[in-house]
Amino acid sequence: MVISSLVVDAVPGTEDAIAQSLAAIDGVEVHNREENRLVVTIEAETVDASHAVASSFIEIDGVMNINLVYANFEDDPSLRKA
Question: pTM for this one?
């Protein structure tokens, strides 16, 4: 399991709609909102899957920027040695 924490910057006035869109994505949880920033976590099976989810955020109307704050990927099964 890979757990990532991100801050999503929103166009002012779009925060509620973005929070709803993010919360509808499997493995994504919105934890906090301060001004036009949303604190989000992603739980995914692999680093690649986490990256794909985070990359999809930019397609949401009003998302200006996505900043990775923390990632724990020691349990990523794709990184285990054979």
Answer: 0.88
Token pair for residue 69? 């704050």
**45-70 per-position pLDDT tens digit:** 999 999 999 999 999 999 999 999 99
Q: Where are the alpha helices (DSSP H) in the chain?
A: 15-23, 47-56
What is the rounded distance in angstroms from the CA atom of residue 46 to the CA atom of residue 5?
Answer: 14
Among 11, 24, 15, CA closest to 64 = 11
Q: Decide yes or no: CATH 3.30.70.920 for domain 2-74.
A: yes
Residue 22, CA distances (Å) to 57, 79, 82 in order? 7, 27, 35
